[in-house]
Design a protein that fits this description.
Layout: H1 9-15, H2 21-39, E1 44-53, E2 59-72, E3 75-89, E4 95-96, H3 105-112
Antiparallel strand pairs: 1-2, 2-3, 3-4
């Protein structure tokens, strides 16, 4: 019997935007925290994910937007970065780049050896 993977937000974010969303989020967070410390004002980083079903399949289009507000000496700097990723929705709601039905050939080869 095949074991279902549990939903994991870290691996999901690492899959989004061809693996660059997590890096962009870290960069935005670092800039906002530097601005907050350097200027004594509040910074903000927001990740918004909109979900739309693709046709009638068990696939969704995730539109992810990172919004950041970085404090500056005389005010603030705002930036938005919006990208999209198509992902599969597996039986337990776990979203991933590949469906759970996909065979992991590397593990199969190890088990056969």
């Amino acid at each position: 019997m095949k074991k279902q993977r549990e939903p994991n937000i870290i691996s999901t974010i690492e899959d989004m935007d061809n693996g660059t969303l997590a890096q962009k989020l870290s960069t935005s967070l670092a800039a906002a925290t530097r601005g907050a410390i350097g200027h004594g004002k509040k910074g903000r980083v927001t990740l918004t994910i909109d979900i739309d079903q693709i046709g009638e399949a068990a696939q969704v289009q995730l539109t992810h937007k990172i919004s950041s507000v970085v404090p500056t000496l005389r005010g603030k700097r705002s930036e938005e970065d919006t990208t999209q990723t198509a992902m599969f929705v597996n039986e337990n709601g776990y979203v991933s780049i590949a469906p759970d039905a996909q065979v992991d050939f590397f593990n199969e080869l190890k088990e056969q050896a």
